[in-house]
Amino acid sequence: MIVFPAIDIRNGKCVRLKQGNFDQMETFSTDPADAATKWESQGGKYLHVVDLDGALKGYPVNIAAIKQIISKVHIPVQFGGGIRNEESVIRMLDLGVERVILGTSALSDKQFTKSMIKKYKEHIAVSIDAKKGNVAVQGWTEISGIRALDLARELTDSGLETVIYTDIAKDGMLQGPNFVELERMDTVAENLIASGGISTVDDLRKLNNMDLYGAIVGKALYTGAIRLEDIENKMEE
Questions:
Q1: How confident is the model at residue 22 (pLDDT cuts 50, 70, 90)?
Q2: Which of 16-30, 112-126, 167-181 is predicted most confidently?
Q3: Which of the two ends of the chain, N or C, has the fewest CB atoms closer than 10 A to its terminal CB?
Q4: CATH code of residue 96
Q5: How far apart are CA 229 and CA 118, in angstroms?
């Protein structure tokens, strides 16, 4: 299982939110590229980068920070936040992003999403963010009436390989992921990446035992609750 250190960017800074609430934001670094190189040096194999401003505005905003990250690390980067058209997809891939994450557009414009999946294949992931099982959009500010599992099934039937599933109620709370929903989602997604609430190596061990493709770790890394250097050895305990 791949452990993805999370780098969330707002106003050019590396931050973390609680339950997706922009009013509960904590800044961890003024230089996201420094955070990226730190996680790489500690054994990170793949980075998960999100442009929070882009998610709200509908187009990538923190381009300079993304460029710096990609120029300074030697590991692949998956990126999301405001990707709503093919121009943005192409721009990110041209910058060196390995996998572009579609979020809001997966629900608001399924035709676009399915066309990107067909055209760019493994270079596209869809982030399905949910609260009480229903999909959230617009930077988590709106909750739809669409079931997350139904959306995942429809998109995987269209060829989607990688699904990132985030339980908003768990995100940034360090209370553990939603294992029940992840088990359901794993029956649909070929490559499932868990996100939200992962707070201990024991959480990672449970996810690994579920044979998930990956897990995104954010706040627990920044607070030191989980140390990348320790993960491999402790996962085998």
A1: low
A2: 112-126
A3: C
A4: 3.20.20.70
A5: 37
The strand pair at 134-137 and 124-131 is best described as: antiparallel
Cβ neighbours of residue 27 under 8 Å, at least 6 residues apart?
13, 14, 15
Question: Model pTM?
Answer: 0.91
Place of tokens 């300074």: 72
* Torsion of Cα atoms, 25 then 29 then 33 then 38, to 10°: -110
Question: What total of structural domains would you count in the chain?
Answer: 1
Range of the domain at 20: 2-235
> How far is Cα 43 from Cα 155, in angstroms, rounded to an integer?
32
Q: Mind telling me the catalytic residues? A: 8, 129
Residues in the chain: 237
Q: What angle do CA 212, 153, 199 make, to 5 degrees?
A: 35
Q: What is the phi-psi region of residue 92: left when phi exceeds 0, alpha when psi lies from -120 to 50, beta otherwise? A: alpha
Pick the closest to residue 136 from 6, 128, 79, 54 (CA basis).
128
